[in-house]
Design brief:
The protein is elongated. The chain has four helices and 13 strands. 17% of the residues are buried. It starts with 16 loop residues before the first strand and ends in an 11-residue tail after the last strand. It is of the alpha+beta class. It has a five-stranded antiparallel β-sheet. Strands 4-5 form a two-stranded antiparallel ribbon. Strands 8-13 form a two-stranded antiparallel ribbon. The chain has helices at residues 53-68, 81-90, 97-103, 128-136, and strands spanning 17-18, 22-26, 30-35, 40-41, 44-45, 76-78, 107-111, 118-119, 122-125, 144-146, 149-151, 160-166, 169-170.
Length: 181
């Protein structure tokens, strides 16, 4: 099994932003987003990464941004390593075979855009911040209405929900994301 990637270092290029899971590098007119194998949950980074998670997330994003492009414009330029390597080399970064292998499949070249700070969360189970809100609202003893959604009473932490629900949240730069309706 491959060694998990906890942090991506591109010699000669400092990240302009380091998130819980991604490093973002400013290439002038474009951004390079590199997804690690770190796990973020409950507003923190978990100690044990999942090997290849960054590649899976990047390829899922590539699929959906490509699939939805005819509906709404998005920031995706490419995830193809040859194009990314060419762009890095044009910025004066030497892309050797080790760096190429590290970046391949986990890197997105993207247009700079103004971020709309909302995280889209689809939940199949009641856990995390939703569980905490459910308990505070009295859901353990009766049904509750949270974020425009009726939830049955008597659920236990991490129970499967009757159907998946969408619970967007603010994307906090620090501190906790806040669930919104």
């Amino acid at each position: 099994m491959p060694t998990p990637v906890l942090r991506v270092v591109i010699p000669g290029l400092d990240p302009s932003l380091r998130g819980k899971v991604r490093e973002i590098y400013d290439l002038g007119g474009d951004l390079l987003l590199v997804t690690s194998d770190r796990i973020s949950a409950y507003d923190s980074v978990m100690p044990n990464p999942i090997p290849q998670k960054g590649r899976v997330l990047t390829q899922l994003s590539r699929f959906w941004f490509g699939r939805m492009r005819h509906i709404v414009a998005n920031h995706l330029i490419t995830t193809e390593i040859d194009e990314i390597a060419t762009r890095l080399e044009a910025a004066g970064i030497r892309v050797d075979e080790n760096l190429r292998q590290l970046l391949e499949g986990r890197t997105t070249l993207a247009l700079k855009a103004e971020m709309f700070p909302v995280e889209c969360v689809v939940r199949g189970y009641i856990s995390g911040s939703l569980w905490a809100e459910y308990v505070r609202a009295g859901g353990e003893s009766s049904g509750v209405h949270l974020h425009g959604i009726d939830l049955p009473g008597g659920l236990r932490e991490s129970d499967k929900l009757p159907e998946p629900i969408f619970t967007p949240a603010t994307k906090a730069t620090d501190g906790h994301d806040i669930n919104i309706s």
